[in-house]
Design a protein that fits this description.
The protein starts with a strand and ends with a helix. It is of the alpha/beta class and 147 residues long. The protein has 6 helices and 5 strands. It is globular. A 5-stranded parallel beta sheet has the order 2-1-3-5-4, with helices on both faces. Helix content is 47%, strand content 16%. The structure holds D-ribose. The site of D-ribose has 8 residues, from helix 3. This is Ribose 5-phosphate isomerase B. Keywords: Isomerase. It is an enzyme of class 5 (isomerase). GO terms for molecular function: ribose-5-phosphate isomerase activity.
């Protein structure tokens, strides 16, 4: 699996923790920034991560900001992206099994590093269940095409 990870200044510390986990799990990743402590705008980091997942260059993306909310709103503007902002393991699993989420958004100011790592592990391991869930995703795709 190839993964791309990005954050704004509000998610940068948690991003470092998650990168450590990805290394432990032997998952190849690219860090799309930010790498500064000064204030940046989260859509500038959500956009390239979401686009590169949507275009198939990466299988999955992880986006981190203060709450995960801004990143998820921005990422979901990109066609083909199903980004779920998650703060518990159950939702992490469901976002894969039912929603086939290809981007995970986390909030550094919402979840602690241990919970965040457990969420990422769960999200990486869970598989999309297809079947009736596929039909529902196709309806979401139709919404995207209606504009
Ligand atoms: C930055 O202060 C903060 O607004 C951002 O990290 C994020 O939480 C937005 O949703």
């Amino acid at each position: 699996m190839k993964l791309i990870i990005g954050s704004d200044h509000g998610g940068r510390n948690l991003k470092e923790e998650i990168k450590g986990l990805l290394e432990e799990l032997n998952i190849a990743y690219e860090d799309a920034g930010c790498d500064c402590d000064t204030s940046v705008d989260y859509p500038d980091y959500a956009k390239p991560v979401a686009k590169r997942v949507a275009e198939g260059e990466f299988d999955r993306g992880i986006l981190i900001c203060g709450t995960g909310i801004g990143m998820s709103i921005a990422a979901n503007k990109i066609k083909g992206i199903r980004c779920a902002v998650v703060s518990d393991e159950y939702s992490a699993r469901m976002s894969r099994e039912h929603n086939n989420a290809n981007v995970l958004a986390l909030g550094e100011r919402v979840v602690g590093p241990d919970l965040a790592k457990s969420i990422v592990r769960t999200w990486l391991e869970a598989e999309f269940q297809g079947d009736r869930h596929q039909r529902r995703l196709e309806k979401i795709e139709q919404l995207e095409n209606e504009g």
